[in-house]
Predict the structure.
Amino acid sequence: TELDEVLLSISSKTWEDEGQGLRAVHAKSHGLLSAVVEVPAGLSPELAQGLFARPGRHPAVMRLSTTPGDLLADRVSTPRGIALRICDVPGPRLDGSDGPGAQDVILVNGPQFNAPNGRAFLRSLKLLAKTTDRMDRTKKLISAILRGTERGLEAMGGESATLKAMGGEPPHHILGESFFTQLPLRHGDHIAKLQLVPVSTSLRALTDTRLDLSDDDALREAVIAFFAAQGGEWELRAQLCTSLKEMPVDDATARWDEARSPFRTVARVIAPPQPAWTPERSAAIDTGVGFSPWHGLEAHRPLGELMRLRRSAYAASQAFRARKNGVALHPGCPFAAAARAADR
């Protein structure tokens, strides 16, 4: 598809510049964490679906990142993401989702997607592709201006996903952010969007905390410093669709009314103290793992036009990376064995 071609054009350009196959989006990681996902007993029937149907503990990995496809200094402040892979998950799998039982959940730090449909998303992605390899100094200056504009909008009670995507993301600590799938997926017999929210006291204290981004890797250094001293916990929450008219599947910019259907906890994500980013972890996860919402259970099938477009786009991008790097992508959790041993 045309979307595949645009993403591959970004990866091709960064391959020329960096000499390695990078993700077309979310190329730079800031944290690579081993974690455990704990599904509690006693969930209500509508929540106890798919991987949440049975209580238990699952090894997992988390990749914290920012959106550009090139490796930029953190002063170019863009939206943040978390890719969560939950392992040892039983159940029928999506077509083409090979390997051991694992479920990927892809989240970003905003409740709404920045384009309503595939055509609008393609237009915005083409603009992003044109900025790949622009001068780093220029991007830093533009980002500073856009952050000031976004700060003014937020002071008046508004915000702009477009400004944030272009470099106006507020310079908050990444570990204090809440993350959203934005796009819907099956939740067994239901439809849902997911949310990941920091709940441990130490993480909640970082919410809206401004971070000095003068260091090129300020986000990564902040994550490393945090997990060197302590662990953190998040809640994974599901918002069920209760009306297709009021909570549409195919309008990606539609924000589902939380008064009508609140986010409700389905699991807890626990990351112990650890080396939160190392070259070895980068080789294992940045290079060796490809995340996709289409890597998982049939019970959590991605829904809507943009999710369908993501299927081939993610596959094409991952094939490019694997070929250029000469590394087969790991279908499971690279640290699963260590996580299982630590959890005993």
